[in-house]
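Trying the structure run again after the queue cleared.
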Amino acid sequence: MKLIGSTSSPYVRKVRVVMAEKRLDYEFVQEDVWADGTTIASSNPLGKVPCLVMDGGDAMFDSRVIVEYLDTLSPVGKLIPTSGRERAEVKTWEALADGVMDAGVLWRMEAIWPKRADGERSQAWMDRQRGKVEAGIAAMAKGLGDKPFCSGIHLSLSDIAVGCALDWTAFRFPELDWRSAHPSLARLIDKLHQRASFKDTAPA
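Done. Tokens:
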């Protein structure tokens, strides 16, 4: 398998962490989808990463689709329950984490996209997206409470998705300082940082 992505993308990182936890072999191909010479459209017509290219050449995209597939490839470290309320809980955590990242990306691109003049940038739009990021992180902290992990007592996709969202937020928006505001999330992220899967995929 070949994973096309960027080391700065939190969605790509989520896939890379899952691959590490599942002990799956793959080739990582760096791709800047914003560069003029990007070739990502040849694998994903939407022009986004991550994109997983299988041995036969077929491509799979969207991090949620990819991690769902990867969890079926090996019985090692099952990350997504197969059915029922437990599965819905994990997928809801993932949706919350992805929503924080979605809002963060919209906020960041409004602020830095070079093809938009400064006078065209909307502070109201950026403030709206920042509000979503902060509300999402607060909801994570409330949902985690005093539990050792987001969905029970074992690592799951919930924790991987939340960890990637929090690390990316700290990477791109250090001024938010969610650690001080939400010590329970700080404890969780410190625990995740002890895992090789997180150490080896830090955003850069």
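The CA atoms of residues 144 and 150 lie 5 Å apart. Worth checking whether this holds up in the mutant runs.
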